[in-house]
User: What shape does this take?
Amino acid sequence: MKRLTGTLRARLVLSHLAVVVISIGVLVVAGRQLGSAFVSSHLHSMGQMMGGMDMVDTAQLEQGIDSAFDQALLWAALLGALAALAAASYGAVRLLRPLDDVRQVARRLATGSYGERAAVPQEAELAGLAGDVNALAQALEATEQRRLRLISEVAHELRTPVATLKGYLEGLLDGVFEPDPETLAASIREARRLERLADDLGALSRAEEGAVDLRLETVDLTRLAVDVANRLRPQFDDQQVTLTVEPGPSLPVSVDTDRITQVLTNLIGNALTYTPTGGHVTVRSARAGHIADVTVTDTGRGLTDEQARLVFDRFYRTDRSTRGTGIGLTIARSLARLHGGDVTASSPGLGQGSTFRLTLPVIN
Assistant: This one.
């Protein structure tokens, strides 16, 4: 019995039948009681009007009418139950068919067919369910595409340093290269490049998953930006790029100092990477309402609208000849968002420089 009533379809049918049976029961009982009373009353009235009908004939006639009435009610109840069963079965099938479709789509999604979509029925509630399943399928498909793209991008980034390191090692084994300091230093550079890529990938994964352990403390974002800029100033001097720092008001923020230092280092270092010799990079801090704002503006090669949109994507670089893993800005944005802020990019156009903006909520 439990197995029979374990499905939603069976329960819908049984619930409809239960309503019909209760209705028929009420109809039979009420009809029987009220019918007998009405029949008896009318027969007595007719007997009085006719004046010749005795009590025995009236009782027999009343009994016959009651019997016929009971048979009529029984047949009506049976026909009503059959009609209710047919209607309930049809309604259950019509109602549950969209659910079966959604279930089949969910099963195919579980097997990795993320392109599947459920048909949206007319019923508002079922349409909402199908819409939610389709939204889930779309999210899973996008996640799978990002996963495949990440695998491809990581493989591409690993290929160059691995091939270079392999070439040096094979050259040393074959005697093509001498194990001199220059060759060993080149090999170490490629090994460090691999190590840096692995570290960046780990940091990116933790940041995007929200698994970074933030040690929040109240710091002055303006002072932090000045300190990071001054620490990087020797690199600007080596590449003959002017670094100007324009500190604004004190900007108290609750952040993990090491993480936000990493964000500022990536933004200022990125500006140095894409600014040619003789160029200029300016670091400013300001406050806009409840938002702390640090901007890094350079006079470098600039960005198109599409590049400004894609520059935070993993491994995206506007110039493949530049050094780096291509995920520094991705990490910077992810870390900023973990703090309730953001990092954005803008540019007037190619050859007109770029501006990267870090925003964080100010502590009142």
